[in-house]
Amino acid sequence: xxxxxxDDLENINKQLKKADSAVKKATGSDIKQICENxxxxxxxxxKVGIVPITSGNGRIGxxxxxxxxxxxxxxxxxxxxxxxxxxxxxxxVQNGAEIILMADDHTFLAHNIKNGxxxxxxxxxxxxxAEIASKNLTxxxxxxxxxxxxKVGFPGAAHLVNKGCKVYGYDADxxxxxxxxxxxxxxxxxxxxxxxxxxxxxxxxCANTIPEAVLLENCVLSTPGxxxxxxEDLQKKYNVQLIAEPLGIGxxxxxxxxx
Length: 259
Ligand code: NAD
Ligand code: 2YG
Ligand code: MG
Prior knowledge:
Elements: H1 12-27, H2 31-39, E1 47-50, H3 63-73, E2 77-80, H4 85-94, E3 99-103, E4 108-112, E5 118-120, H5 121-134, E6 143-147, H6 153-162, E7 166-170, H7 174-183, E8 186-188, E9 197-202, E10 215-222, H8 232-237, E11 241-243, H9 248-257
Parallel strand pairs: 1-2, 1-3, 6-7, 6-9, 7-8, 9-10, 10-11
Antiparallel strand pairs: 3-4, 4-5
């Protein structure tokens, strides 16, 4: 898994506010309203314990601090434990945490220890970015292009199918594309015979994955993928409404889904 860097997370509050404005413009709702509507839950200053984890590649600078800022932005009462790892978990529970947030190199989880709900960042991220895409106010049809059908993209694509969207899917891994399109009601997308879309959901770890040929003027591109799926000049040329943010939208989805 590609790991976040401290640079990705610089000025997370500013990035989150910018993303919130873009989501509101594209959908008519802000991120909090989308989460409330998606999960039917409401935050009420629940205590969230953020536990830094040192295993594997160790702590990522700004990671715990960014989670803290994000949880507070969405109305949670969060704190970072002084100690990391097992000692930090113990400290979080002893200090009254109802929800634990922690990540190693493979798993980023939210666990509500009061109701037992536990979720993983990858599907939660895919689902919320797909939900945002599906709420595109200026969509010309319910066609959605999904690029990247991995751990984030697949649950997002499944969410769009469940919502009744006509989903066109593409992944650079031919085997995965074949498997996915036979398991889900997804139309395999062939970049050699492009079609234009007003709604695109992208979840790959690569840059420049959205070819010019698929872009409609004013389209919504909802993408958790890092680095960004589209270059700035192409975004400007087609006035693409870009929803892209490195941590906050997915974390909000996790927190609301365990309430
Ligand atoms: P993954 O490796 O499970 O899936 C990525 C998929 O993209 C793979 O199936 C791969 O074949 C495909 N792919 C690669 N290059 C492609 C291309 N040019 N065109 C089409 N498909 C291509 O990864 P993942 O866990 O699903 O994560 C996807 C991205 O989302 C990563 O960049 C990850 O860091 C990011 N992510 C962001 C957030 C967030 O909050 N913004 C949260 C979780 C993950
Ligand atoms: O506690 C710490 O500081 C570290 N152990 C956190 C490690 C997180 C590793 N995971 C990632 O970098 C991401 N791919 C997880 C997804 C978050 C949203 N992009
Ligand atoms: Mg996010």
